[in-house]
Write a sequence for this structure.
């Protein structure tokens, strides 16, 4: 298989896993640059010539095409293989719904996971209990919206096969399920829990993500 492209990123970036899953489903080879050093590589003139803001993840394709912003990278990879119609939709309405959930993943889930994670685990953000609690509350509200959308035993958010919507939503939930979505919260999210567990059991997904871990106790600040 000829390489499709390479991603610059720091280690264990869940946003990159979403791209790698889209690539795997599409049969595309997307590698991670092994010698990338955050704060060094992304400040070099060579890197900034391709990615002016120095942000990661950043994708450099074999044909020289470069793109950053993880949602854009995931969409481009999903759109670049034989499962493009399935992953991003074959018509405008389906594409809009898939894009809706992709935006929701970043705007409502990830944005409320990163601050608590940064405060309580990585400790690169100053401790702020009020903000921590607010993010957890907002996260639960967002997850309830997804749970409602999955009512009736739905296995996928859009249509009857996995799409980029599922990759963006379920792929963003491994970290919060491991750290913040405790048994009490999961009780109120039966559809979502079943959905994420089903997503995690797919062979291709498991190769990319490994096992889904459900926390017994929420990480506290």
């Amino acid at each position: 298989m000829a390489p499709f492209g390479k991603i610059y990123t720091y280690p264990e970036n869940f946003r990159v896993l979403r791209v790698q899953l889209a690539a795997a489903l599409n049969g595309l080879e997307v590698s991670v640059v092994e010698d990338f050093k955050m704060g060094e590589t992304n400040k070099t003139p060579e890197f900034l010539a391709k990615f002016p803001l120095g942000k990661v993840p950043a994708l450099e394709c074999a044909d020289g095409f470069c793109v950053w912003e993880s949602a854009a990278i995931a969409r481009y990879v999903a759109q670049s293989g034989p499962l493009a119609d399935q992953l991003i939709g074959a018509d405008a309405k389906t594409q809009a719904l898939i894009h809706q959930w992709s935006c929701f993943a970043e705007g409502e889930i990830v944005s409320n996971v990163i601050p608590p994670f940064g405060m309580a685990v990585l400790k690169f953000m100053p401790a702020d209990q009020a903000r921590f609690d607010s993010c957890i509350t907002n996260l639960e509200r967002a997850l309830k919206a997804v749970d409602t959308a999955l009512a009736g035993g739905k296995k996928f958010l859009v249509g009857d096969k996995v799409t980029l919507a599922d990759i963006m939503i379920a792929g963003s939930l491994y970290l919060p399920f491991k750290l913040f979505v405790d048994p009490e919260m999961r009780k109120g999210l039966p559809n979502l829990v079943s959905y994420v567990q089903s997503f995690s059991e797919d062979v291709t997904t498991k190769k990319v993500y490994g096992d889904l871990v459900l926390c017994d106790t929420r990480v506290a600040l």
User: Anything to note?
Assistant: The CA atoms of residues 164 and 186 lie 24 Å apart. The chain has a mean pLDDT of 97.
